Amino acid sequence: MASAGASGTxxxxxxxxxxxxxxLLGKTATEIVAIDKTWVTDFEPELKSQSNEWRTPxxxxxxxxxxxxxxxxxxxxxxxxxxxxxxxxxxxxxxxVTAAYYRDWMQEFRRKMHKNRPDLLGDGPLxxxxxxxxxxxxxxxxxxxxxxxxxxxxAPYSPDMSPPDFDLFxxxxxxxxxxxxxxxxxxxxxxxxxxxxxxxxGALNG
Length: 206
Known about the structure:
The protein is an alpha/beta fold. It has helices at 12-24, 48-51, 99-116, 118-123, 133-136, 138-147, 163-166, 168-173, 184-201; strands spanning 32-41, 73-81, 84-90, 126-129, 150-151. The radius of gyration is 19 Å and the shape is globular.
């Protein structure tokens, strides 16, 4: 897993270190399926580079507004490989991701792979998911053992970071930044458009 620097951001060197670790383990990017979850909300603030605008020396600085914590948000699980996103799941409001929930999700994910990634399923994917309790629960690990799917270890120096943190999620949220959505339906539609754009552009390839 890529480590975060002192600022909490992941650098190119961090990413190269992660790739080097997996290469030493004898893994290839084409075998790996990354699974992680993230919040999607009614408003993703623009990055500093997105909000830059041309100003004269005498121009006043633009005002920045603080937004209250959003109530329009949902947690989503994503699974993807180098070819694109394989499956997403919108976690119902008020639902906790337990080991049992994750087991049921993995069963649906396997059915999805039968349709979308039969070659990968035949070879056996290498699962790279969060190093958190629901994913490590017995009912979940027993199912992974039954499927004979190997789980890649996390680097000990950054157990809370995963490839989606610096690859999928920033790219997914990029077109949503700076836009205000009024409902979960609008947020979901924006996520769907972003997913289609990523798959069409091949932005996750490699």
